[in-house]
Amino acid sequence: MDKVSSSSKAALAAATEHRQRLLDGLADALQTQAFAEITIADIVAKARVSKRTFYEQFASKEACLLALGERLCDQTLALIAANYRFDEDWITQLRNVTHAYLSSLESQTAVMRAMYIELMTIGAEGLALRRRMGERFGQFLIMQVEAFRTVEPHKRPLTPTMATAVIGGINELILQAIERGEAHRLSELTPTVTEFVQAVIQSLEAPVQTSA
Fold this sequence. Notes:
Mean pLDDT: 86
Shape: globular
Low-confidence stretches: none
Helix content: over 70%
Oligomer: single chain
Structural class: mainly alpha
Order of helices and strands: HHHHHHHHH
Number of strands: 0
């Protein structure tokens, strides 16, 4: 029984490693090629695995791109959480988290471009992933406002609709930077994004009740 268990664990570890190598291979290929030009042969060559291994993990290069997007989302959310400090005032927290987020995207411009532009070329699944990514970031914002409300209870909650609008605004700023060829300077958006989100959070102040 132990031998079977060990064998299963080894197989799972190998499959996980192959999957990560394939995602890294696609990310590497995106450094020099547009997604439309990349072939499965390009990906497996970068990953140093066989086509058979590729098809054990993904049905197509589009599926590989979707998985790369999911990984980027997970990594970014983990980075944001790692840079959050409850012992700092919320404006400083916001600035630090925003800078960490934009710097992370800035450090992998090819993958980021694929997520913001080329992901949309693969149809409904690409759009669905973009929406899931936006929803996850929106949920994070909602959680942060709730954390602020523990020390500033007069603030109103951030609604999912408002969170979506905030994420949409940030994404538009990032997209404009990509289109201008300035993806490598995304961290320079930190003051603008911080001011924008700060304004939204400050707008959640509950109206002052006046006596009749």
